[in-house]
Amino acid sequence: xxxxxxxxxYRKFKCIADRCTDSCCIGWEIDIDSESVERYKKCGGDLGRxxxxxxxxxxxxxxxxxxxxxxxxxxxxSRNLCDIYAELGEDALCxxxxxxxxxxxxxxxxxxxxxxxxCEAAAExxxxxxxxxxxxxxxKPSLDSFENALLDIRREAFQIVSEEGDVFENLGRLLKFSxxxxxxLNNGEAVSAESIYDGEIPFLKGGRLSxxxxxxxxxxxxxxxxxDNMLSEIISGNYETAFPESVCSDINEELKQAAQYFIFxxxxxxxxxxxxxxxxxxxxxxxxxxxxxxxxxxxKNGEISFTDxxxxxxxxxxxxxxxxENMEMFFDFVWDKLR
Length: 339
Known about the structure:
Layout: E1 3-7, E2 31-32, H1 34-41, H2 45-53, E3 55-57, E4 63-65, H3 83-88, H4 95-99, E5 102-107, E6 110-115, H5 120-128, E7 135-136, H6 145-162, H7 167-187, E8 204-205, E9 208-209, H8 211-219, H9 225-235, H10 245-266, H11 270-273, H12 277-301, H13 306-320, H14 324-338
Parallel strand pairs: 1-6
Antiparallel strand pairs: 1-7, 2-4, 3-4, 5-6, 8-9
Helix pairs in contact: 5-13, 6-7, 6-10, 7-12, 10-12, 12-13, 12-14
């Protein structure tokens, strides 16, 4: 049986339901697993009628809820609570609703489970922690040589980005380390910490997004009007990253946590494509984008609160990580123009 590994903060998560300012029941396509479809077909009464009327089937056989006005789930009531949950209980939620914002990475003898930065409750937990990333259930399962090498690389990556100093200097070192690590991974060789040396990220120059970074953001398929407004501010340069000294340290440490999150979530994708370097680029890009998005909030509000910083991280995650097309576009861009 595969061992389940999760971050040290995982058990702190709890959905905040109607207190959430950006409900996952709004603006998301909600597919329904086959077991839930059968359960809903047997549901009687007014709820059963509503379920029958508000589920559609696509050409490939996928069932999903028919979103209403403002792309709200038809079972999200006026109090922003779920009618299915209220009437039938938590066990009646379809898999995607019960699981969100969790994600999983699958190794041969290990399953990692984490929380997505797209959720404000999860983002608050992730950005609030300090120090190097750690796991609960840390015992090392029986893995093959490639998996062990990848985990060794990721462990070193956690260390690099969490070191004292400026997060973007650390990310520059991460990219240089990852270049050497990629070669070692390709050749089946061990990676030494001596491979680390100074570098820069190609996405941020003097507190401003580079042309490459702006081009990537412009190429992304938009997921919301909120993103459209944010992108417009970024393209126009309407942001300020000379943050007050009172928050600079917090922002720096929060971005280190974001970097570790991106590394944790995306490095295991190299199990499928062998490409760890592009995942390191994404960690650097994500932190640069979030930093500049925070600058948009700072310019707009005259201050930068922790809530603003959570919103920046959440919006970037929704825009990039939860669009397969946007992620593929980013990795293609890295291959074509940055490597």
